[in-house]
């Protein structure tokens, strides 16, 4: 019987590339590092990344985290979180912590999440889309003169209007002080607020126990690039668990022949 076979070497190369991309993010400027540059990059950046990890969430002050920002989450400026400055050698002491966009020509001075409706950012009370507003501070509308700055009346799943929400950038200590999860240390770039596999679901989705139907509908609505993040971290987690199980089995029955269970069927 004919069956599609996955070349284990090719699959490993893809995994290696994805791992590289998660770690380096956009820091190689689009040109792959040499193995030496990659090692040097990891030596230099990973310790500071673990020390200075920033957590980015979006919600009404004092309320739940309605949204945890991940690498692919878009900003009001239209660029993704991973395209903003997310690593710091030394953390600035001023608050709020500003994470400027690194895309050339973009005037965004700090990452700012905007509610999405499907894949589109919501509208302002001036009726124009968030995208029609300047990315520079003040966020004035480019299409009308009456707008005093982007102000979204959209009702969030938490019941509060969009304009009552803020993007919060905080350090590990600050997040812990608020009693919020900080997750495990990860070497990946631009993790933002992601601390677990269910982080990507909106806050109200995580809290919702009202029934499987609405849950299924809301999960279907999450089919975005962000979902790929979730699948990726889930897969790496499962791989690590499997390696740990195998390592345990090997030590408990040393001398036994290797198990064929890492073959894909
Ligand atoms: Zn930008
Ligand atoms: Zn931005
Ligand atoms: Zn407006
Ligand atoms: Zn307008
Ligand atoms: Zn909300």
Secondary structure: elements and pairs:
Elements: H1 8-24, H2 35-51, E1 54-59, E2 67-68, E3 116-117, E4 120-121, E5 166-171, H3 172-177, H4 203-207, H5 212-221, H6 225-252
Bound molecules: zinc ion (5 copies).
Describe the 3D structure.
A hairpin with a 7-residue loop joins strand 1 and strand 2. The two termini are 13 Å apart. The chain has six helices and five strands, in the order ααβββββαααα. It has one domain. The longest helix has 28 residues, at 225-252. By secondary structure, the protein is mostly helical. The strands form two sheets. A three-stranded antiparallel sheet has the order 2-1-5. 31% of the residues lie in helices and 7% in strands. One zinc ion (ZN) binds at residues 75, 77, 79, 84, 101, 108, 111.
């Amino acid at each position: 019987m004919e069956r599609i076979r996955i070349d284990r070497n090719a699959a490993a190369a893809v995994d290696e590339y994805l791992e590289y991309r998660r770690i380096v993010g956009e820091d190689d400027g689009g040109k792959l590092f040499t193995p030496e540059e990659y090692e040097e990059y990891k030596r230099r950046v990973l310790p500071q990344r673990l020390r200075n990890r920033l957590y980015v969430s979006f919600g009404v002050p004092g309320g739940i985290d309605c949204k945890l920002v991940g690498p692919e989450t878009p900003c009001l400026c239209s660029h993704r979180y991973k395209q903003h400055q997310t690593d710091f050698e030394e953390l600035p002491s001023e608050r709020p912590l500003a994470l400027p966009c690194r895309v050339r020509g973009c005037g965004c001075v700090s990452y700012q999440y905007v509610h999405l409706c499907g894949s589109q950012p919501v509208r302002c009370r001036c009726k124009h889309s968030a995208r029609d507003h300047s990315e520079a501070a003040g966020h004035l509308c480019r299409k009308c003169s009456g707008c005093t700055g982007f102000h979204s009346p959209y009702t969030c799943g938490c019941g509060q209007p969009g304009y009552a929400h803020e993007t919060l950038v905080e350090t590990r200590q600050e997040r812990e002080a608020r009693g919020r999860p900080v997750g495990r240390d990860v070497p990946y770039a631009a993790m933002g607020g992601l601390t677990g596999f269910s982080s990507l679901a909106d806050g109200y989705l995580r809290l919702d126990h009202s029934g499987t139907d609405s849950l299924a509908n809301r999960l279907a609505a999450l089919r975005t690039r962000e979902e790929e993040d979730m699948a990726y971290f889930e897969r790496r987690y499962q791989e690590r668990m499997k390696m740990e199980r195998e390592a345990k089995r090997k030590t408990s029955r040393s001398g036994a022949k290797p198990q064929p269970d890492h073959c894909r069927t």
